[in-house]
Amino acid sequence: MSPRIALRDYEELLDFARQELRKSQQQLIQLRNQEAPAAELEELEHEIELLNKAVDRYQLKIKVLQHALRESENQP
Question: Looking at beta carbons, which pairs linking 60-65 to residues 24 or more positions away fall under 8 Å?
Fold first, then answer.
């Protein structure tokens, strides 16, 4: 897979993960306002943690791929 295609794929994954993170955060707020059971809140908090980690990983991978692309473009 070319770095450009991989970069595009990771950018799409990042967008999706961010959307899911926002949805989960909004859902958590709603559940807290409704005084949902602690187990339900903990499960959603765990999901948010995983989504945060995914966003971080995708951002890092994108930076690495962008750097690799710049390096390959600068080579004669």
Answer: 61/10, 62/7, 62/10, 62/11, 62/14, 65/3, 65/6, 65/7, 65/10
